[in-house]
Amino acid sequence: MREGCPALREDPERSATRLSDGPADQEARLVAAVHRVRSGTRLVVALVALVVVAALGVSSAGFVRQASDAERAATVREWQGEHRRLFEESVYARTAFRRLTVNAPDADSVSELRDRSAELDRRMSELDRLWRSDSGLRKLIEAEFGSLRDWKEFALATANGPPSADVVRLKVLERSDRLFDSWITAFRNSGDVVADRVSGDSNRSLRNGRDVLIAVFGLSVLMLTLLLVWARYARLRVLAATTMLGEVAQANQRTSDLAALLRTVIDGTSNLIFAKGSDRRYILANEAMNRVLIDSSRESIILLRDDELMSRADRDLVVLHEDEMLEAEVPKTFEETLSLKGEVRHFITTRSPLIGADGRTIGLVGVATDVTEEKVARGVERVASALHGIARAKTTSDVARVFVEAVEDALEVDAIALWTRDDAGTGWRLRAEAPRGTSVDFTRSLPRDAAEAFGDPADGPRIVVKEADRGVLVFLVPGQSGDVDVILTVALSGVGAALEAVTREALSAACVDLQRGLEVVSLAEAERALVRRMQFAMLGNPNLNTKSLATCGRYIAAESDFLVGGDWFDVFEFPDGRIGIGIGDIVGHGVDAAIAAGQCRSALFGSAASGEAPDLVIERLDRFAGVVAEAQYATCLYLTLEPVTRTIRWVRAGHPPLLLIHGDGRAEFLERGGGLPLGMPGGAGVREIQEMVLDPDSTVVAFTDGLIEDRSVAIEARMQRLADLVVGVRTCDVETIATQIAEGMLAAGTLTDDIAFVVCGIGERRPNFEWTDAEVSRRSVPEVRERVERWLTESGIDRETTSDIVLALSEIVTNSVEHAWSKGTRGRVRIYGSIDSEHIEIAVEDDGRWQRRREASEGGFGLMIASACMNAVEVLTSEAGTVVKMKRERHSERTVGKC
Amino acid sequence: MLETSVLTQTPRLSTRPVAVLEVVGEIDVSSADRLDAAVRDVKNLGSPFVVDLCAVTFIDSSGIRVLLRNHDEGGFVIARAVTGNVARVLQIVGLEKVLDIFDDRETALMALVD
């Protein structure tokens, strides 16, 4: 026996170790043994079998020496009891196998079988332990199965050459027992075991039907033992049995080590490694594969098919890919998205054909990489990086737009729209969408409480519309109050599940950013609105209207609210008839600046209330600014005006100069006495009070730098533009001037800062004349005359003067009508006039080219008459057209009329 | 607003009837063409005639040009009122020295008899 079984001497320690391996190993042994397994797995089988044989081969040397007869008898009894139980187990195992293989395999039975088998293995290893502890037992067994002694020779004689180790070959020469028969059938039906019945003729050593020869190649000794036990109970005469493992094991020793290594390697990787048989059952799966496909209640997917592991659609996809690869017979790689264990996962799977020894394809092997995390992470990352703009967004709309664009850009969504509560809070309002015009407004029918329609936002996004290839995901984003403040709708199409998972994940993360962004801007917006209200509340009333002067103030908020705050003005009248005008600008913006502006205004009023000179007032304000941090470095201008003497006195503290429009229409900036801003050390010393007596009908404009600052234009250019705007404008109507300034400066550039200015006109207020006709014709001429005549008459101009002016005007307008444009075309004529205490001025402006030569050739009466009627007629021709400015003294004698 | 009418009047101390073009309203660039047409119509009658501008409230260079253009061919005198701006305009352009201008229609008619 010992000589006959060289493998038995091999390393009993190692075999002991193997036998006490965990259930997974035992399971592998069992499963592998009953299935036709290939590649690495078969090596495992061989190895396990070898180990068990080795266990059986424990030396018998100590048997006689170490144990008494009584003990031996007890041990044998124990062994007999044990192997009876083993037999029962074997019956169970058979039944289970049959169920497994004959009926449609179901996961539960496989797992059950595995559990049982594990138990069986455990008991067998106990038995082995007994054997090892008493070699007398070994002898006993040898006696029981004496005929096994020549097993090796027999096996060699009955087998044609060394058996193929991957085929478990069970040779049954004769059988008379239905149990054994069904077992063989079970093996056979499983497709993994070949059980051959050898006819009686082929071997003369078989004498009757109850003699059985069992030769098992590659089958584990466990199985062999089971067979032997069963044979005994079946009262079969076992002629010989073999696992043929002596040679096989020797031959495969090295490869079995390799197999162990291989197993370690494939279990050590996070990639999914698997092999399937031709029936598409898994015959190999590493731990990663098991983890992904089944939960912890099951241990392995071996023997399972994909339809037990995934949905029909996913299975179809996998089969499709497998078929494609098998047909091409070359490795193929696919990106697959499967819903496994209720979770959508993305894989990149490479499959190759598994070629058997005969060159036929017997299955496939595959390696898959789970890229779910990467894919989701990439989506999240893309969105996150695209969302950086949110930090710069200033308004809710900005945030919404940045978010929507970022998502559309980063994720493969069909459309995305973002809805916020409308101002009334009763409905929803589309804030941003991408691409434009793609959003379907289903929010119209939504109740106020979005949670009513979609459930608790904490449950995450949900699909509200789901069609075959299209879905609309709805995200509810709660605001600070916990109410849903934002609804996000995302339309998806195409691969559906994959996209959906990434989108869900990425957007759920992005919604956090969105929420934060919205909170920030809504706070900022509320603050800006508050500041704006404060700002206006703190401004003084700039509109005064007395007999001798009028003031008008304008505060124009910048287009955006971000630079709100800081500008202020105030106008007040002293009991002695003088007026004071203060204007200033605080450094910075926001609430603090608005408050400081209000403080400065109050401080100025307090300082100036008793009528002190501007230098004293500014000095006090300077001290105030010295102790109020926000007011430091603020600029200010304070001006007093004595209407009777038309004397202005003013002090500038770092503030832009006054704009003075003289009575004759000239405009200039009063740059004198710049001075330093408020609250600067030593500032008080360098400010000088300025004094000036104005012409009658002068206009003074005090403004903050918002009026002349434009990032794209030099400040000088803006100042020049301001001066150009008011040149020639008469003081009569401060409202008109203010409007003209505001419109002119706004038209010239973007308003980046608030603008504040006060216009103060000295002199009686008389209405100006203004008339424009975009398509002037001959018929316009009588109308113009009538209007101008009425204006002059109502302004108290005498009849004679009126008549002259009307005549002159008629001539000039006629010139425009007749000669400004080429025949058949018409153009624009604007007529404006003003009256002050001494003069009447009227100008005719057209946008054509006045053809003076032609006019002259026809007599030139027009200009002649106009010149005769007026004190001055000036014709200014430019590319833009012609302006004729005429002036008439109110009380002049008629020059020609008296001749 | 300009209206013109032609009537025939025989001056005192005369048996020859004279045509009178009576002009009412304002003469400016919008009405000068009509005045021009009216004057030509009267001229075509072939007899001496009077252009009566006494009821004209406004005239400017457009009207002056019509008068001058037609005066070149001779044959008429102008009557004008002292009121209105006609006298003023005629004075400005110095037409009083060129045209036969009288202060009223009767005087103008009498001048034609001579």
Overall description:
The complex is a heterodimer of chains A (899) and B (114). Chain A has five domains: 6-252, no CATH class; 269-370, PAS domain (Beta-Lactamase); 377-532, Beta-Lactamase (2-Layer Sandwich), CATH 3.30.450.40; 539-762, Phosphatase 2c, domain 1 (4-Layer Sandwich), CATH 3.60.40; 769-889, Heat Shock Protein 90 (2-Layer Sandwich). In chain A, 43% of the residues lie in helices and 23% in strands. Chain A contains 26 helices and 30 strands. In chain A, strands 15-16-25-24-21-22 form a six-stranded antiparallel beta sheet, covered by helices on one side. In chain A, strand 17 (567-573) and strand 18 form a beta hairpin. The longest helix of chain A has 42 residues, at 497-538. Mean pLDDT of chain A is 69; it is low at 1-67, 96-105, 143-222, 233-252, 853-859 and 895-899. With 114 residues, chain B is of the alpha/beta class. Chain B has a single domain, classed as STAS domain (Transcription Regulator spoIIAA, 2-Layer Sandwich). Chain B has a five-stranded mixed beta sheet with strand order 1-2-3-4-5. In chain B, a hairpin with an 8-residue loop joins strand 1 and strand 2 (18-27). Chain B is globular. Chain A binds chain B through residues 778-779, 781-782, 785, 803-804, 806-807, 810-811, 814, 817-818, 858-859, 861-862, 864-865, 868-869, 896-897, 899, and chain B through 1, 26, 28-30, 58, 60-62, 64-65, 68, 85, 88-89, 91-93.
* Large-scale geometry of chain B: globular
Main interface by residue count: A-B, 25 and 18 residues
- Count the domains of chain B: 1
Distance between the amino and carboxyl termini of chain B:
34 Å
* Low-pLDDT stretches of chain B: none
Strands of the widest sheet of chain A, in order across it, are: 15-16-25-24-21-22
Report the average pLDDT across residues of chain B.
Answer: 83
CATH topology of chain B: Transcription Regulator spoIIAA
CATH architect. name of chain B: 2-Layer Sandwich
Q: Number of DSSP helices of chain A?
A: 26
Low-confidence stretches of chain A: 1-67, 96-105, 143-222, 233-252, 853-859, 895-899
